[in-house]
Amino acid sequence: MRNRTLASALAACLALAAAAPGADLVRLSQTISTDAQIADEKGFFTDQGIKIQWTGKQAHGPAVLVTVAAGENDFAGTVTSSVVLARVRGAKLRIIAATSASSLKRPFFRYLVKDSSPIKSAKDFVGKKVVAQPTTITWYPLVVWLKHQGVDYNQVEFVSLPSPLATLQAFHEGKVDAIAAIDSAPPATMLLAEGGVHYVPGISDAEVLGVTQVSGWATTDDFIARHPGVVKRFVKALSLAVAWGNAHPAEAEAILNRLNDVPAAAAKYAAWRPGTPAVKVDPDSIRRWVSILEDFGQVKPGEVKPEDLYTNQFNP
Known about the structure:
Layout: H1 2-18, E1 24-28, H2 34-41, H3 44-47, E2 50-54, H4 61-69, E3 76-79, H5 80-88, E4 93-101, E5 110-114, E6 129-131, H6 140-148, E7 157-159, H7 164-172, E8 178-181, H8 188-194, E9 197-204, H9 205-209, E10 213-220, H10 221-226, H11 228-247, H12 249-259, H13 264-267, H14 283-295
Helix pairs in contact: 2-11, 2-12, 5-14, 11-12
C-alpha cells in the first residue's frame, strides 16, 4: 500500500507540472461525479484555479472512497454510510459538500416491481431476488424497512448487476423480482415509460431512513489541512455546477450522457435531477446515518462522533 501511495503521489506531481500555470491539480474518479463533471465541462473548476485529472471509474461509491483513503484520488462522491464505516476502520475522511438531495415528495431510491408481482408486504420479499448493492444507498432503505417490519433481511437475495441495461434485461426476463431504482435514469425511467410496473409503497430513503441528504463529497483530514484553499474552491465550483444544471437541465443531462458514454437508447430516458446549490452538509442527516449503522451493529454506540464526519467551513 505504501509503495502504491508513493507512486500515486509521484504521478500527481508529474501531472501538476504539466497543468496550467498556477492551477491546482485535483484527481477525481468518474464514479458518482455528475456535478463535478458539469463543473469541469463548463469551466467552473478552471475559473477556480483547479485542473481536474480524471482517473477512471470504480465499481461503486464505497470503492472510490477507498482510492481517496489510499491517496489515489483527492475527493470522492459517495453515500454517507461509507464515510462512517471508513472512519471506523481508521480512514480519516470527512464530507465537505452535500449531494443527492432527497425528500418525501421526491425520494432518491425506491423499489420497483412488476404490477403482477406478488410482493405486497414485507414478508413477500422473503426468498426474492432484489437488485441492490449491500451497504449502499440502494440497500439500506429496504433492509431497515424489513427490520422494522420484523422480517429477516438475510432471507432476501441481493443481486449486483454490471449496468442499467443488464438490470433491465434481468427484470424483463424475470430473473430478479425487484430493483432499487432512481426516478431520473434507466432502468426505472425506461420501465415506467413502458408501463406495467410500480414502486412498492412506503419504502424509500426519505420515508425509511429519514435523511434529506443521501451522500456527499469527501476527502481526507490531511488534504483539508494541507490544501484548505483548494477545498474551498472545489466546493465553490460544485455549487456553481449544481446551480447551472438546475437552470439548464436538458443541456446538463446531454453533457453527462456524452461524458459517460450512455447509449442513445438509454440517454433519452435520463433526466437531470435538481440539486441544492448551497451544497451545505445537513448535520441531522449525518446523525441519522450514524444512528442507522449503530442500529445494525456496524458501528458501536459512540464509536463515531457525527461532528467528525463533516465540515461546512468551506461552503461558499
